[in-house]
Amino acid sequence: MTTASCVAFYLCRYGLDRTVMSVYATFTVVSLGALARIPGSGRQRAATTLTAVPAGLALITLGTLLAVQTWAAVLGMLVIGFLVAYAGTTGPRIAGAAPGMQLLYILPCFPPYAPQALDQRLLGFVLGAVLLALAQRFLLPEPATPPLRLLLADAADAAAALADHRGGPAAAPVFSRARAAADALRPSRVPPADQPASPTLRHKAMAHAAEAVRTLLARLDALHTAAGAHSAYRPETVVLLEAIGAAARGAAGALRQGRRLRPGEGPSAAALEEELGPVRSHRALDSLERLGVDDRLVYVRRRSLVVQAADAAVVLVLASRLLLGDRTVNRDPAGHSFAYARARPTELWWRRLTAHLTPRSVIFQNACRFALGLAAARAVAGLLDLQHGFWVLLATLTLTRTTSLETRSAVRQALIGTLAGAVLAGGLLALVHDRPPVYAVLLPLVMLLAFTAGPLRGLAWAQGGFTLVVAVLFAQVSPVTWQLAPVRLEDVLAGSLIGLACGLVAWPRGAGPEVRRSMAAVCSAVAEGIGRTTGRVLDRTGTAGERDDDGAGILAINRALLLAQESWAQYQSEPQNRNGPQPDWPAVLVAGADARRGERLLPGRPGRITPYEVGDWLRRAAGDTAADYRALAAHLCADHAAPDAPPRPPDLRALLAVAPPVPRHGPDREARAVSAALLLDSVIWLDALATDLARIHREM
Asked: Residues 6 or more apart from 120 whose CB is under 8 A from it?
């Protein structure tokens, strides 16, 4: 940042003698390099900086034109402040660049109203952005991290090795590798710049593949370590595990190559789906009626785990193909949810942008808070005709936090740092006075100190260092005196008070209350999903499950999960005292994902659950689990410690008491076998949701 800033400033100020251009070039580097927090390697940050150039040109143009009147500048600040902050919904790179982009409107929206200087402003911005991108790319760049596509390939290879595992002394390395690969795909472990967070089809397919491979690894791990895992697998299970391994290995190879696939190329899920048939058919259930109750429970769990693993492998292959450009996946008839592959890009972006248009979204709250604060600061600076009013908005932008407590702490540190920096700047200006060569020599030293001490030592050092930078910079642009330092202090104080007022008025407690409400919404969505999925499984009229073509249920769960994940992320970033035990919030998110997985897959399975007593048991068990999730949601909304009653797991022994054995002969043997297979899949899905609920209760 020091190199790019100084080159830009010296070239424009002393080489081209363009004062306005020098200011905009320098502040572009400061805004996109220091104020913005763009994640990623040097190459990724440079790409983000250059991508922001068109938006930056538009913001500077709007700021220049709207500076004609205070009311126009205030209204523009309100709208643009909200839109730029809200744009963070589309991914961490844009969210990281948002504060710097705000500054690109703030700088030109103050008097003097000078549309004739617009060309210098735009050229200075472009020069600063290009120099910053070059410095990010070539001058001490951060090392590149492995792309998520390669992490997916490693995880798929680990899943293939786990599927090939049959026990023995080499078991420990296989399990360690699989667990490490799954852990590397956790959202908290993936670097922000590499996360598939945008609403593009490629990122949605990447996120779908990551969820599928983590599910595959978890199910295979549970299959090999569950009760009874020491016993030999049935022949059809062995064949299915081999098909899972082959499919995962094919997906890994295609992901590692990264080459665009044409229809018919690359990994296929056809062989795996063909091998799923015998495991779901009567041959997998021939001896079930001869087993004792405990052995039947073990068999049910092992059989369901291997089917779930196979389903996850199918999704992994299809999502990998979609990621690599094969758009024929959107015509998949197997019951897997790739509805987003049929949506137009504009529809995907519209869904993402409108998902947070609710007061219950922390992104919406933050955007409103920043927009109101910046508009109020612009109004105060304009109505009071404050000298260097730009600094008022800059202070509001940099000091406003998501909680009032954190804002007060930031304001206190900023004022201490600004006071110290103002004293030093005032002394420097009084001592050097009007000797520009001295300031030209000091500029890189002061910048290097400010840009280094701020991140290392905290906000007070950053504010003090920036005060010195401003003094040394403006002393080379126009004649200044030591009085510039107290003006800077006054403006920072005004901006701090405005930011503090906004923090007290607009959602002063931050994400604390919101995380409970959003997690309660997830629990309610899970309860609705349980009822909806169970009803579609039990009330079907044909031999194949009806599919929810509009995907309304899955969209509802996705929306609840999206808001909850954002609330949880902000809650983790807020320093605060967390009195008392907190629920296991990640377990709530896992429950939402489990509910979504069942709604994607179970209604597409063939068969009908018979007889009536078995369907009635499943309906009651699903109703009990849904009621427990609704009770948890009500208690989270009421801010109670825990629900009064513990969760009720499905009573599998009661199910086995009413479930008739599959007949070994007869005309209805195949239908009864398919019914039993669908029942087992539904039971294990409910059992997973009950396990999630029990985990949440243990932490409350």
From this structure: 18, 20, 21, 24
Q: Are 275 and 243 in contact (CB under 8 A)?
A: yes
Distance, CA of 171 to CA of 554 (rounded, Å): 37
Q: Which residue shows structure tokens 């070994």? A: 664
pLDDT at site 30: 92
Which of 17, 26, 55 lies closest to 132 in space, CA to CA? 26
Query: What sign for the dihedral angle of Cα 31, 36, 41, 47?
Result: negative
Length of the chain: 700
Residue 666 is encoded by which pair of tokens? Answer: 């007869």
What six digits make up the tokens of 181?
């690969």
- Model pLDDT, residue 398: 81
Copy the structure tokens of residue 269. Answer: 């899920």
41-73 burial, b at 16+ Cβ within 10 Å, e below that, comes to: bbbbbbbbbbebbeebbebbbbbbbbbeebeeb
* 292 Cβ contact partners less than 8 Å away, ≥ 6 residues apart: none
> pTM here?
0.81
* Res. 134 pLDDT band, cuts 50 70 90: very high
- Separation of CA 300 from chain center: 36
Mean pLDDT, range 346-366, rounded to an integer: 86
Q: Which residue has the tokens 């696939």?
A: 261
Q: Which of 570, 655, 653 is nearest to 615 (CA)?
A: 655
What's the CA gap between 30 and 145, in Å, rounded? 25
User: Could you give the 3-state DSSP secondary structure of residue 611?
Assistant: coil
CB 624 within 8 A of CB 559: no
Q: What is residue 111's three-state secondary structure? A: coil
- Reading the block at residue 284, the tokens are 């997998």
**Rounded distance, CA 87 to CA 197, Å?**
13
3 state DSSP class of 639:
coil
Residues 662-671 pLDDT 10s: 555 556 666 6
Rounded to an integer, what distance in angstroms lies between the CA atom of residue 578 and that of residue 512? 9
Separation CA 623–CA 279 (nearest Å) = 29
pLDDT value at residue 643: 58
Side chain identity at residue 528, one-letter code: E
Contact 96, 36 (CB under 8 A): yes
pLDDT of residue 551 exceeding 80? no
* Tokens representing residue 526 in the block: 């899970």
The tens digit of pLDDT for each residue in 242-268 reads 889 999 999 999 999 988 877 677 787
Q: How far is CA 97 from its chain centroid?
A: 16
Q: What would the 3-class secondary structure string for 495-515 be?
A: HHHHHHHHHHHCCCCCHHHHH
Q: Give the separation between CA 347 and CA 359, rounded to whole angstroms.
A: 22
